[in-house]
């Protein structure tokens, strides 16, 4: 955020990719292993309830962060400050983790090299159809979620402009907080769905929210009215709120503690490949509702109505 040097920006994305992989694998693996080590599965505290409450609390923090970020932008006149504040939060989180957490390696019978870790993780994924199915689901669902993160502001801005509102700036922080409210509602509905969740009931919830997300994305691609588009995206966020605890619960049931961390990390690789491939298909430029871009010119990458030679060169 403070540099326009391309190598620095690439290095930032490299470290961002490493940290995101750790964020979506380390804590969940640590919590499940600790839950089993302390014998909490025999108590009234269910792991699925913990995941639902965790997502709900994370959404509450995100709502407050969105409002706070909007305040920072309004007072500073720049969008850099919220990112700097987030950096301070990361430093504080690193300090608390180093002081509070105890290292948890899971159940390991022998020491393994990194290559052996990788092979055992791949064997666990490819050798179990259920784990492989979860990996495919997480690849496409979470990959789609990342595309949504990249494009929601541009989509709302485009719809806002087409509605005749001019160049008025949208309250992105408040919109983000609204999305987090919808996500919190989704996680709360997952927690309240049943008192005792089985793998089968959780799988049904996961399939339902996957279908709903597909419908929401289809609507978002067709809707041009900014308010309808906003509510379609809110419904999508609600589905994401139900997705995270259901996916985490299923993975906790199917993956052993000893290989959990490496399996989670390996599952992030196809997800990142999906996002990169999807972005490589992007077409720059503004689209109008009366001229949907169905095809792109292979030679100049322009959309069909922008390229005068489209009919002859493609």
From TrEMBL:
Q: Which Pfam families match?
A: MFS_5
The keyword Acetylation is assigned to this record: no
Enumerate the subcellular locations listed in this protein's record, separating them with semicolons.
Cell membrane
Query: What species was this sequence derived from?
Result: Apiospora saccharicola
Q: What is this protein called?
A: Molybdate-anion transporter
For this protein, the record's InterPro entries field holds: MFS_trans_sf, MOT2/MFSD5
Give the bilayer topology: Multi-pass membrane protein
TM region(s), chain numbering = 6-30, 51-74, 80-98, 131-152, 172-192, 204-222, 228-245
| Source species, domain of life | Eukaryota
Please explain the role this protein plays, according to its UniProt record. Answer: Mediates high-affinity intracellular uptake of the rare oligo-element molybdenum.
Keywords tagged on the record: Cell membrane, Ion transport, Membrane, Transmembrane, Transmembrane helix, Transport
